[in-house]
Specification:
Keywords: Hydrolase
CATH topology: Glycosyltransferase
CATH class: Mainly Alpha
Number of helices: 11
Organism: Vagococcus bubulae
Shape: globular
Radius of gyration: 19 Å
Family: Belongs to the glycosyl hydrolase 88 family.
Protein name: Glucuronyl hydrolase
Structural class: mainly alpha
Number of domains: 1
Number of strands: 7
Helix content: 40-55%
CATH architecture: Alpha/alpha barrel
Largest sheet: 3 strands, antiparallel
Distance between the termini: 21 Å
Pfam families: Glyco_hydro_88
């Protein structure tokens, strides 16, 4: 599968070692559904076997992105084909993710093995997109433990990562023995107090998803707050800079991957708002504008050598990693956004 970020707009190979490895199979499922073609089936089957092997042998799974990995592979396959084997794989992955849940703090540790002192007790906003694996497992097994872990994590995200001004921290630390909240900081944003664009986009989408599974209306309120701040910082072409501290004239890179995530999140959020509400119309309009501008200005159409879809993505600006490149998750969410905009879609999330 393609690696997380391109180099000169060409993806190197990833042999299912990255947290991003599932975004390619996610694209394949979308292509299969959109086209109705069986030409993707053999490749999907090969990929699914690799994800089963990764889980069976516990390969590079010391992180919370088990959710990303198995929502877009096992859960997607179950939802598209009804495969009982994929349902079992998804439940097994959910059990692996549950090992990262810390009862004292009520959070899922993001990175590192559980004895890693540097990463101990760290949650990150991205995990809002991983916990739907637990909600799914609860729904198909009837076991409440998955739901409770996901719900508690989402509430802690709401309480500590979402700031009073509707911006978000990228990460937040807790004492995993006492459960005490310690501090928020960034890993990929401009500063601890700035607002990393991709994190804000995860917040829009992730809070909306937790509302879908729980019915807790406070998640809609949080999603709207995060969305309103994100929208208020958009430049004229609706494609955000890599951190929302930057605006027009800053000469900073955009992040098309964050824009694509936000478009999906806004369309998800709009589904739960009153039919005639101004907010619903606004969110749908902004999402369509994002998609249109990505499609007309930020694709690889002018770069025939590229094997990606969107240019001008950013992986981690502070590390000078994947700046002004294709991001495999950006490509996936761009295709998901196009799918959502054109039809009623049975979400993999």
């Amino acid at each position: 599968m393609p690696d997380a970020a391109s180099t000169k707009l060409i993806y190197p190979e990833d042999h299912n070692q990255e947290w991003t490895s599932s975004f390619w199979i996610g694209e394949l499922f979308l292509a299969k559904e959109l086209s109705g073609s069986k030409k993707y089936d053999a490749l999907i089957e090969t990929q699914l076997n690799e994800f089963k092997k990764r889980l069976d042998y516990d390969i590079e799974l010391d992180h919370h992105d088990i959710g990303f990995l198995y929502i877009l592979s096992a859960v997607a396959d179950y939802k598209v084909t009804g495969s009982n084997q994929s349902k079992k794989m998804a439940i097994k992955a959910a059990n692996r993710l549950m090992t990262r849940f810390n009862e004292a703090s009520g959070i899922i540790q993001a990175w590192g093995d559980l004895e890693d002192k540097k990463e101990s007790g760290r949650m990150i906003i991205d995990c809002l997109m991983n916990i739907p694996l637990l909600y799914f497992a609860s729904n198909v097994t009837g076991e409440d433990k998955y739901y409770q872990a996901a719900y508690r994590h989402a509430k802690q995200t709401q309480k500590y990562i979402l700031r009073e001004d509707s911006t978000t921290y990228h990460t937040y630390f807790f004492d995993k023995v006492s459960g005490e909240a310690i501090k928020g900081e960034t890993a990929q944003g401009y500063s601890d107090d700035s607002c990393w664009s991709r994190g804000q986009a995860w917040g829009i989408y992730g809070f909306a998803l937790s509302y879908r599974y729980t019915g807790d209306a406070s998640f809609i309120q949080s999603a709207c707050e995060v969305a309103d701040y994100f929208i208020s910082k958009l430049p004229a072409d609706y494609v955000c800079y890599w951190d929302l501290v930057f605006g027009e004239g800053s000469n900073q890179p955009r992040d098309t991957s964050a824009a694509a995530i936000a478009a999906c999140g806004l369309l998800e959020l709009a589904k739960y708002l009153p039919v005639l509400s101004d907010k619903k119309r606004e969110y749908e309009s902004v999402a369509v504008n994002i998609i249109q501008n990505l499609a007309t200005t930020y694709t690889t159409e002018a770069y025939p050598e590229s094997n990606g879809l969107l240019i001008e993505g950013v992986y981690s600006y502070p590390e000078n990693r994947g700046v002004n490149e294709c991001m495999i998750w950006g490509d996936y969410f761009y295709l998901e956004a196009l799918t959502r905009a054109g039809q009623v879609w049975n979400s993999y999330w």
